[in-house]
Amino acid sequence: MSVPRTDSEAIVEEGLSAIRSGGGRSTPAKRLLLEVLATNPGHQTAEELTIRVQRSSPDVAASTVYRILEELEKVGVVEHSHAGKGPATFHLRHEAHGHLVCQGCGAMIEAPPELFDELVAGARATWGFVVDPHHFAVLGRCADCATGSSPAKG
């Protein structure tokens, strides 16, 4: 009797398969980074990912994590986002979504693509501009910062 895989195990195996399909090698460090991404959903900086990887394997250098992230992005497993003034964040690539980024507190809200349908269609119709739905951020203020109930970072 076989044991069913968890979602995170499936994500790791799919990621390693994508690496091999792209001509890369499956390594323990790549597996570990994929495990970190699969079990810690959301947007994380390369530094945050490095810290999590090094908790399990202190010998994995930050430069190795950066190289693996580049490779994972190249084969379509992860994507990075630039949200405001901070460093790029990385997350597993899934359904296209935009980001609402608060310029007050830095909160990032994943927004469904339907929210931006009119904007995307208007940009294409008016300027012939094609918006990348996987790399999209709208800056503004979250509800707390807009009402002054959250202290602004800065």
Structure in a nutshell:
The protein has helices at 7-21, 28-39, 46-56, 62-74, 117-127, 143-147, and strands at 44-45, 78-81, 89-92, 98-102, 108-111, 137-140. The chain is of the alpha+beta class and 154 residues long.
Molecular structure report:
This protein folds into two domains: 7-91, Orthogonal Bundle (Arc Repressor Mutant, subunit A), CATH 1.10.10; 95-147, Dna Ligase, domain 1 (2-Layer Sandwich), CATH 3.30.1490.190. 44% of the residues lie in helices and 15% in strands. The chain has helices at 7-21, 28-39, 46-56, 62-74, 117-127, 143-147, and strands spanning 44-45, 78-81, 89-92, 98-102, 108-111, 137-140. The strands form two sheets. Strands 1-3-2 form a three-stranded antiparallel sheet. It has a three-stranded mixed sheet with strand order 5-4-6, with no helix packed on it. The protein is globular.
Topology:
Elements: H1 7-21, H2 28-39, E1 44-45, H3 46-56, H4 62-74, E2 78-81, E3 89-92, E4 98-102, E5 108-111, H5 117-127, E6 137-140, H6 143-147
Parallel strand pairs: 4-6
Antiparallel strand pairs: 1-3, 2-3, 4-5
Helix pairs in contact: 1-2, 2-3, 3-4
Q: Which short descriptors sum up this protein?
A:
154 residues, alpha+beta, Dna Ligase, domain 1, 2 domains, three-stranded antiparallel beta sheet, disordered N terminus
